[in-house]
Amino acid sequence: MQYNYFLHKERPLNDVPWTVKFSLILALMLQLLWHGVQEPVVAKAEDLAAPLSTRTYVMSSLGEPIAASKFLNLWLQAFDNQPGASISFHQLNYPLLTKWLDTILELDPRGHYPMLVAARVYGSIQDPEKQRIMTEYIFDKFNENPNKYWRWLAHAIITAKHEVKDNKLALKYAYALAEKATGKNVPYLAKDLNIIVLEDMGEVEAAKILVGALIDSGEISDPYELKFLTQKIITLEEKMLKKRQSVER
């Protein structure tokens, strides 16, 4: 007769030796105790590491530096959101961050992404010290190619003046922009930011002298810029008159 397992009656629990029962209970208690003493698993954000050489990235992308640049763009942009963790831009090492931006620029010299994020992302946090690092980074790049990067320095002027609250720093950038960004692609309003900064600083007399010198130099041929400067002279003279009248009272 063939043995039928399905008809076989299970043994009652009382038939299990007490030593086996005790071992099972002990194993369960030890497992619970083990889990109880373990530290909870917490996602930990990784620090930004130093970039590799541009040659390494070019080789890893099979000789496609533009592709490597775009990949690093996306990677750097998403670095603050890591699996299971999130870090603030305030926690990033900004001097090291500029090295990453440099690497991306070296891979794609025609790109503007590093300047964009330096000005509008990393340079927009409410941390004057780190904002200075970003504006100085933009300033250094501007000095390398003024007619290419003038717009980002114009943004740095606004950041220095209105967010960092450093008029002298804003004026330094504005003078550099006026002196070095001489290309036809640079609008006169950007070139004349130094006048606006001086005016906002209360240096009305200095601004008026500067405007007058620009007009008298004869180097300005754009009729719209001449009109802007002429109107600015009138505005500055009105401010000077009001200032004198308030002092006389």
Q: Given the structure, what is the number of helices? A: 12
How helical, in percent, are the residues?
A: 55-70%
User: What's the number of domains?
Assistant: 2
The end-to-end span amounts to 126 Å
Q: What is the N-to-C succession of helices and strands?
A: HHHEEHHHHHHHHH
Unreliable segments of 5+ consecutive residues: 40-45, 82-86
Strands across the major sheet, in which order?
1-2
What is the SS-derived class? mainly alpha
Please report which band the strand proportion falls in: under 5%, 5-15%, 15-25%, 25-35%, 35-45% or over 45%: under 5%
Q: What Rg do the Cα atoms give?
A: 33 Å
Please tell me the overall pLDDT. Answer: 79
Gross morphology: elongated
Quaternary structure: single chain
The major beta sheet can be summarized as: 2 strands, antiparallel
Q: What's the number of extended β-strand segments? A: 2
What is the topology?
Layout: H1 18-37, H2 54-60, H3 65-77, E1 81-82, E2 85-86, H4 94-107, H5 113-120, H6 128-144, H7 146-163, H8 167-180, H9 188-191, H10 193-200, H11 204-217, H12 223-248
Antiparallel strand pairs: 1-2
Protein architecture, described:
- The protein is mostly helical and 249 residues long.
- It folds into two domains: 50-182; 202-249.
- Helices cover 65% and strands 2% of the residues.
- It is built from twelve helices and two strands.
- It has helices spanning 18-37, 54-60, 65-77, 94-107, 113-120, 128-144, 146-163, 167-180, 188-191, 193-200, 204-217, 223-248; strands at residues 81-82, 85-86.
- A two-stranded antiparallel ribbon has the order 1-2.
- Helix 7 packs antiparallel against helix 8 and helix 11 packs antiparallel against helix 12.
- The N and C termini lie far apart (126 Å).
- Mean pLDDT is 79; it is low at 40-45 and 82-86.
